[in-house]
């Protein structure tokens, strides 16, 4: 029985579900119908709106199109107007060009006619010039080349005259301005410098207390005098000179050692080879001390400081060195003082000028021991002991071997000449003197037109007599300058040499 109840329940459930589904379907169909109606209304409304928008867009597009069309037509009209104006201008330019071309063609034709006329006249003129040349040659008696030569000679004479005149003016101006200043500087420096001068010789004289001392100096079989001469390198001359012994030698330092040793031996009285050797050794040490003291005194006297000790010692050695009879150390001190004074006058570094002047001949302390000139040796010494470049150049250039690179080098060169050339400073040998006179006369005689030349005033002036027919007054000025220049280039001399060119013209006649 119970399964009927179950079956009825199942059928009832199925029927309920079916009824529920049918109800829901009817409800959904109603909603769908309502939604479709609404969608159709919305679609109709959208269609209407779209049609309205479309009509508005078409109207706006037509208006925009009309506006663009109007603008384009306006722009087109403006462009056409501009093109028309340009065409008008081009047409006017073409017309102007045509007129100008026509005018140029007319001018060209006129120029061609004128050119032909000028060519014709030029040919006629050339013919006339040739005819005049022939006539001039007939009248003057000169050919064209001869006339050119004559005119060139006249021009050359005029130029030579102007050149001589200019040289005279420039020389006069230079002498008036530069010479005056130079004399002031040099004279002022010389007046302020009062250095003494010592002339060394090749002999020294030692006084003896009596003539008996000569025998003791000679010694038994001459052993004492031989020992002295061997140790000192100096020759002892013992003659009839009363109470005196002469020391002879070219090395002043050795003579000084010998003099001091001999004086000590004479004062001591004990003279034998062992004592002589000991005394000579002491004398050498004493001379070394004198050398050092002389170098230090030279620094003080010249006003120079901070010099290398070896350079100080070499300066002291120059006390025993002479050049042309002039003491080398005194000369260096004198050059240092004059250089400093000249530098002060010119507003330059006085200390550097004194230093360069003091060291300019430092090579002379070793030039008898080393190869080379005292200039090269001195420059090498200055480089070795770190002297300034200005000092090195002054040492190298004070005899003109190297070009000076500073005013101080020029000052040292001038001061060296002043110190060496002043009266009594040096003694010249007869051979040097005669050679300089001979060279002077040979140089002047080599010039064309020189009749005779004379070197006078100890070679400080040369007078040249010229042939008047070959040398004019203008030629004299140029010749004097050329001779002076050649003397400067070829000769070495202290001071200056004056060149005088003399031209004498004589005219003679006889009164009847």
Walk me through the topology.
Blueprint: H1 2-140, H2 144-192, E1 203-207, H3 212-218, H4 223-232, E2 235-237, E3 244-248, H5 252-268, H6 273-302, H7 309-317, E4 322-323, E5 326-327, H8 328-346, H9 350-359, H10 374-384, H11 389-397, H12 407-421, H13 430-445, E6 450-456, E7 461-466, H14 473-490, E8 498-503
Parallel strand pairs: 7-8
Antiparallel strand pairs: 1-3, 2-3, 4-5, 6-7
Helix pairs in contact: 2-8, 2-14, 4-6, 5-6, 6-7, 6-8, 8-9, 8-12, 9-11, 9-12, 10-11, 11-12
Structure, described:
By secondary structure, the chain is mostly helical. Helix content is 70%, strand content 7%. The protein has helices at 2-140, 144-192, 212-218, 223-232, 252-268, 273-302, 309-317, 328-346, 350-359, 374-384, 389-397, 407-421, 430-445, 473-490; strands spanning 203-207, 235-237, 244-248, 322-323, 326-327, 450-456, 461-466, 498-503. The strands form three sheets. It has a three-stranded antiparallel beta sheet with strand order 1-3-2, covered by helices on one side. Strands 6-7-8 form a three-stranded mixed beta sheet. It has a two-stranded antiparallel ribbon with strand order 4-5. α2 crosses α8 and α5 (252-268) packs across α6. The longest helix has 139 residues, at 2-140. It is flat and about 190 Å long. The model is unreliable at 194-200 (pLDDT under 50).
């Amino acid at each position: 029985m119970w399964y009927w109840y179950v079956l009825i329940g199942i059928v009832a459930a199925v029927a309920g579900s079916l009824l529920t589904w049918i109800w829901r379907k009817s409800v959904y169909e109603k909603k769908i119908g309502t939604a479709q109606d609404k969608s159709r209304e919305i679609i109709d409304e959208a269609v209407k709106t779209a049609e309205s928008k479309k009509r508005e867009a078409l109207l706006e597009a037509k208006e925009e199109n009309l506006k663009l069309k109007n603008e384009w037509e306006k722009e087109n009209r403006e462009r056409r107007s501009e093109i028309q104006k340009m065409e008008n201008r081009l047409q006017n330019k073409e017309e102007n060009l045509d007129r100008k071309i026509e005018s140029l063609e007319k001018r060209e034709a006129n120029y061609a006619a004128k050119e032909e006329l000028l060519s014709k006249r030029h040919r006629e003129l050339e013919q006339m010039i040739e005819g005049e040349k022939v006539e001039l040659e007939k009248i003057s008696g000169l050919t064209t080349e001869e006339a050119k030569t004559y005119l060139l000679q006249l021009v050359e004479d005029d130029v030579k005259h102007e050149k001589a005149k200019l040289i005279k003016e420039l020389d006069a101006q230079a002498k008036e301005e530069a010479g005056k200043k130079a004399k002031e500087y040099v004279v002022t420096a010389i007046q302020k410098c009062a250095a003494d001068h010592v002339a060394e010789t090749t002999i020294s004289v030692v006084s003896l207390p009596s003539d008996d001392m000569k025998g003791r100096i000679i010694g038994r079989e001459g052993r004492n005098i031989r020992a002295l001469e061997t140790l000192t390198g100096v020759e002892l001359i013992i003659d009839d000179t009363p109470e005196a012994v002469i020391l002879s030698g070219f090395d002043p330092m050795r003579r000084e050692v010998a003099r001091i040793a001999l004086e000590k031996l004479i004062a001591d009285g004990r003279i034998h080879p062992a004592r002589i050797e000991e005394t000579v050794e002491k004398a050498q040490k004493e001379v070394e001390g004198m050398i050092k003291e002389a170098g230090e005194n030279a620094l003080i006297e010249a006003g120079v400081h901070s010099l290398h000790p070896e350079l100080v010692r070499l300066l002291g050695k120059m006390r025993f060195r002479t050049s042309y009879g002039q003491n080398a150390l005194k000369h260096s001190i004198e050059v240092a003082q004059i250089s400093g004074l000249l530098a002060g006058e010119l507003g330059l570094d006085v200390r550097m000028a004194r230093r360069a002047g003091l060291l300019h001949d430092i090579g002379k302390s070793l030039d008898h021991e080393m190869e080379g000139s005292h200039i090269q040796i001195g420059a090498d010494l200055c480089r070795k002991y770190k002297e300034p470049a200005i000092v090195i150049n002054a040492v190298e250039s004070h005899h003109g071997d190297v070009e000076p690179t500073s005013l101080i080098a020029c000052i040292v060169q001038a001061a060296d000449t002043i110190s060496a050339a002043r009266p009594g400073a040096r003694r010249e040998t007869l051979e040097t003197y005669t050679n300089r006179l001979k060279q002077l006369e040979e140089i002047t005689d080599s010039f064309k037109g020189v009749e005779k030349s004379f070197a006078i005033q100890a070679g400080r002036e040369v007078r040249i007599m010229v042939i008047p027919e070959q040398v004019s007054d203008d030629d004299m000025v140029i010749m004097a300058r050329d001779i002076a220049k050649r003397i400067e280039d070829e000769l070495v001399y202290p001071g200056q040499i004056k060149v005088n060119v003399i031209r004498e013209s004589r005219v003679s006649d006889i009164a009847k």
